[in-house]
């Protein structure tokens, strides 16, 4: 049986990848319904964004006809997106940079693969 995958990407999310990583690490490898439950009760901005992405990936899986019970979060990643460059005047006629970092949030759902039991003869 081939392993089916469904994917969703939240592009140009207005949050730093560094701030999303702790939530991603908590969700990666979990069953989908456990991950949805975890993200629903997490109060961070990153959790809201990831919940939106996870629900989109789940909808993509339903559209492909995949059974939802066996789905796990196989991959959860936050890649850097283009950075907004801002600045403000500083003392002594200097100008200090303000980098507003963005992220591309990727979630891939896959079926859990149950390995076939092998019987070893003695």
From TrEMBL:
TM helices/strands, residue ranges: none
One term of GO molecular function: rRNA binding
BP terms from Gene Ontology: translation
This protein's UniProt keywords: Ribonucleoprotein, Ribosomal protein, RNA-binding, rRNA-binding
Entry's Gene Ontology cellular component terms: cytosolic large ribosomal subunit
Database matches in HAMAP family: Ribosomal_uL22_B
Quaternary structure note: Part of the 50S ribosomal subunit.
Protein name from the UniProt record: Large ribosomal subunit protein uL22
Organism (species): candidate division WWE3 bacterium RIFCSPHIGHO2_01_FULL_43_9
Source lineage: Bacteria, Katanobacteria
